[in-house]
Amino acid sequence: MNLICCDATTGKTPAPAMRILESPLGPLRAAAVREGICFLDFDAPEYEKRMERDIAATFGIPSVKARNTHLTKLAKELDEYFAGKRREFSVPLVVSGTPFQVRVWEALSRIPFGATRTYADVAADIGSPSAFRAVGNANGKNRIVILIPCHRVIASGGDLGGYGGGLPRKQFLLGLEKKSI
Q: Which of 93, 118, 140 is the last residue of a domain?
C-alpha cells in the first residue's frame, strides 16, 4: 500500500469530506480529501473530537459532510473486508506525521493479512531495532485504522498489547482475518 504524505495545508485544499460508515464493530467515522482517505476511526464522541482536531491541524480547515469518491470506494471495500471477501484495500491513503511515524505506518501496511508482528519486529523492519517503544507510540497515532493495520501488532510475549479502539475490536479484527485465510 502506498501512503501519500501530507504537510500542513497552504489553504488550497478543499475541506475534507466526512462520512459515517456502518460496520460489525459499530459505526466508523471516515474522512477523505481529493488525494485519498485521511481518517478512519471508530465513531464515538472522543474520536469525533480527535478527528476534527487532527484534520484541522493537518489541513487547516474542518471536515464537512459531503460526497467523495474515495469514501464511496472505502465503504464498498470495508463491506467486502468484513464479509471475508477482501484482504487488501486499494483506496489511496493520505497521512500526516513525522518521518519516523510514516516509516512505522508503511511497515504496518506490509504486515500480511491474517499475520501479526511484535513492536520489536516492526522496529527491526524500519531499521531501528531498539525503537520498539517509539513504534508503539507511532502505532497509537495511526488515524487510519484497519487500512493501516495497527491491529496486527502484538506484544512480544504474544499478548494482544494495546489498541486505541479497545481490545475487543482488536480481537474481532484478528479473528476475522484468521477466519478469512
A: 93
